TrEMBL record:
This is 1-phosphofructokinase. Residues 100-112 have a biased composition (Polar residues). Belongs to the carbohydrate kinase PfkB family. PANTHER family: 1-PHOSPHOFRUCTOKINASE, 1-PHOSPHOFRUCTOKINASE-RELATED. InterPro entries: PfkB_dom, Ribo/fructo_kinase, Ribokinase-like, Tagatose/fructose_Pkinase. Pfam families: PfkB (PF00294). Residues 100-119, 322-344 are annotated as: Disordered. GO terms for molecular function: ATP binding; phosphofructokinase activity. It comes from the Bacteria. The lineage of its organism: Bacteria, Bacillati, Actinomycetota, Actinomycetes, Geodermatophilales. Keywords: ATP-binding, Kinase, Nucleotide-binding, Transferase. Residues 44-310 form the Carbohydrate kinase PfkB domain.
């Protein structure tokens, strides 16, 4: 476990335009279609990618605000209040969607996601205004997850442009049409940090996903195309293969420690949270990658969409390599996030 701790410094603001209640259904064995399944105890937690990032940061004692559309009496609002998570909501009349995860004993997870409620232009304008207000003076703003039905695919690009005058760094984690629109919207819409996974990067680069996972040189070449479009820092998560961090300062790759996978839901979100926490604590790039991978691994070892506390994160167990084939970087003495309350 981490031997040195320091609290993260600075506020993070997350936007979850398409939040969810994440219902995890724990199966006693492999799913058999057409059969009757008697579930093990199940759980429901507030979710959506930005909410997951915020929960992990709050669990480390970080200053975080999560922005989302939800009625005051929506169950997700009550759940977030119970966790003590600061939030700013824009009221909508439609209940927040429920996403279902079928979790098998070997760690296989099957996601069944509802589409979410459409947001009218007035609601999107109100969300953008609330986000901008809280972004003033923040260190990071995170735009994360899918967009609600009917939302223009270039909305994230519009938000990045609108947030530039706040001085906050901007991280984006999305996929499919919104990701493509973001990267074709021009240099003024490019985020400071992009967190694709292998599938998303393969779509952007037009190469098979398996090739990116198996060949780090191919992955680095694909990441290079993102830098050519103006992205300063790329955190590429590769699941069980670890992750790669690329910036103007260099390239690092990291392998996770061996774990017993219980659920991969939210692991990528926790990886992003680990990177941000390490950055807020003043850690250099190699350490940011170390804690991104450590947080993702810790998340995958927990049930459902639970987020880890720093006490559950084993940073020194992550092997970080400078470049793609250079020497291994040992854990440094840079400060890492201090343990905070457990929000699971």
């Amino acid at each position: 476990m981490s031997t040195q701790a320091a609290p993260p410094s600075g506020r993070v603001v997350t936007l979850t335009a398409n939040p969810s209640l994440d219902r995890t259904l724990t199966l006693p064995g492999p799913l058999e279609r057409g059969g009757v399944v008697r579930l093990a105890p199940s759980a429901t937690e507030p979710g959506g990618k930005g909410v997951n990032v915020a929960r992990a940061i709050a669990a480390a004692g970080g200053d975080v605000v999560t922005v989302l559309p939800a009625a005051d009496d929506d169950p997700i609002v009550a759940a977030l209040h119970r966790l003590g998570l600061p939030l700013a909501t824009v009221p909508v009349t439609t209940p927040v969607r429920t996403n279902y995860t079928l979790a098998e004993p070997d760690g296989t997870t099957t996601k069944l996601n509802e589409p979410g409620a459409a947001l009218d232009p007035d609601t999107r304008t109100a969300l953008a205004a609330v986000l901008h207000r809280y972004a003033q003076g923040a260190r990071w703003v995170v735009l994360s997850g899918s967009l609600p039905p009917g939302t223009p695919v270039d909305w994230y690009a519009d938000l990045v442009r609108a947030l530039r005058d706040t001085g906050a760094r901007i991280a984006v984690d999305t996929s499919e049409a919104p990701l493509l629109a973001l990267l074709t919207a021009g240099p003024d819409a490019v985020p400071d940090l992009l967190k694709p996974n292998a599938e998303e990067l393969a779509q952007l680069a037009g190469v098979p996903e398996a090739e990116l996972v198996a060949d780090r040189d191919a992955a680095l070449a694909a990441v290079g195309t993102l830098h050519e479009r103006g992205v300063a820092e790329v955190l590429l998560t590769l699941g069980a293969e670890g992750a790669l961090l690329s910036s103007a300062e260099g390239v690092w790759s990291a392998a996770p420690p061996p774990i017993a996978v219980r659920s991969t839901v939210g692991a990528g979100d926790c990886s992003l949270a680990g990177h941000l926490l390490a950055h807020l604590a003043g850690a250099p790039p190699a350490e940011r990658l170390r804690f991104a991978v450590a947080y993702g691994a810790a998340s995958a070892s927990l049930p459902g969409s639970a987020v880890p506390t720093p006490a559950q994160v084993d940073g020194p167990a992550v092997r970080v390599t400078a470049g793609l084939s250079g020497s291994t970087t040992p854990p440094s003495t840079a400060p890492v996030p201090a343990a905070g309350r457990d929000v699971r």
